[in-house]
Design brief:
By secondary structure, the chain is of the alpha+beta class. Helices cover 65% and strands 8% of the residues. The chain is built from 14 helices and 6 strands. α8 (161-181) packs antiparallel against α9. The longest helix has 36 residues, at 34-69.
Amino acid sequence: MHQIIQFFEHLGANYRIYTPEQFADLFSARRHPEYIHEHRATLNNERVRFFATLFAVLMPLWLIIDFLVLPPALFMQLAVIRLVSTLVFLYQAWPGKRVHSLAASRISLGIFLFNLPVTFLTSSYFLAGAQLDNSGLLLAKLYTLLPYMSVAGLGVFPLTVYECLTYAVPLSIVAIGGWSLLGTTGLEQLLPSVWLLFVLVSIVLFSATIQLQYMISLVSRPSYDPLTGALSRRSGLDALVREFQMTLMHNDNFSIALLDLDNVDSIIAEYDYPTYDHAVLQAAEVLQEELRHNDILVRWGEKAFLLILPNTDSQGVRITLERIRTKGIGTLPDGKPVTVSIGIAERMIDKVEDWHDLVELVDQRRDQAKLTGKDRTVFFDERHVPA
């Protein structure tokens, strides 16, 4: 059992998947931060434009083959279908188009992916009723490749499992509908095509999700502290400003807490730097476990963490810190507890309307906790309470 666990841990590490949460993020985008949504929307839009441009050129060129092989009346019918398909590709390839939201990029991607299968389905309707020679039958067979191209195209985009299946299942249904129109209804004829489609979808699921994870790790690398996984100071400051502005708009409560590990120099001198790093990591894990889903943990300094607590009043932040105090922030190799000095500020009770002032206030209270004995919290009313 241990070897199996090690195998999956090694496999996850190869694909930058280290936690169950990261694995869950491959299935749904619900927990993805906004900057991941924006980056994915931009990336998907750029790829849709590139491939739409490519097909806007290739689609009319295929008319040459249709003209040489098909009867004139059938050629004119398929030419109209191809013209409509080409216009859709041209619209999506147009340089002035910009898609900024993830929802809009999903719609744009859906239009692009369904263009070819719908073209195949409508073409199959006319091809099925036509008398074709061997060349025409071969051309009809080539039309059946269009749904495969769309399904394979899913692997070019960074998508979650849920998104892949949302596109792949309807694409497969459209493909089966086209095969049925062309007379591929017998099980012995349909089963190999369905099996190939199933294998292709499986490969695409792997490719799209690995792309997604690689993109998330690449984009998030500058945004997160490599040791603790908390937001870096720069990204944390962006989050603080964004959340504070939202708070002002809705006139809500907003609290922050600055936690600073005590006696760091003594820890390093008595033990070593790896022990200090482990103490910092322990503290980050405890804080992350005790925060709510919408709270934000920031590595504010070498030995300091900032807690950003939206929609949290003075009582709420006291309850949060009480949970942390009860659990403890971590221990040293000899069993001694790691302690922290904490400063707290809350927008309404401190009458602060600028995030700079709130940060300065919490910094002062953290310093005051240090100067008055450490291992304590300075609250809004400046009283000192043991941490």
